[in-house]
Specification:
single chain; about 110 residues; mainly beta; 7-stranded mixed beta sheet
Length: about 110
Amino acid sequence: QVQLVESGGGSVQPGQSLRLSCAASGFTVSTSAMSWYRQPPGREYEWVATIDSDDNTYYEETMEGRFTISKDNAKNTLILQIHSLKPENTAMYYCETNKDRQYRGQGTQVTVSS
């Protein structure tokens, strides 16, 4: 069955980088469209980025430039690289994919503070 497991979050200082991973099972990442979402504390769930089955990438406008979505096909894993982290990037980050229904992992927490 489809399973998504995020990892790579943590507590970092502004300006640092993080590499989030979403390990997938039950389907093949390389031929799938997948997305990252996040939920900042006290705010609504929001879309971050999508990579489609042809590896075309799409970003929420304010995140383009510092956020990079990609696939590690050898590990069947979705990646989100975030550079120059800011306090407003603090959130629980989730990966999602749609197969017979929408699937979402349990999330990985990113906290940015000095």
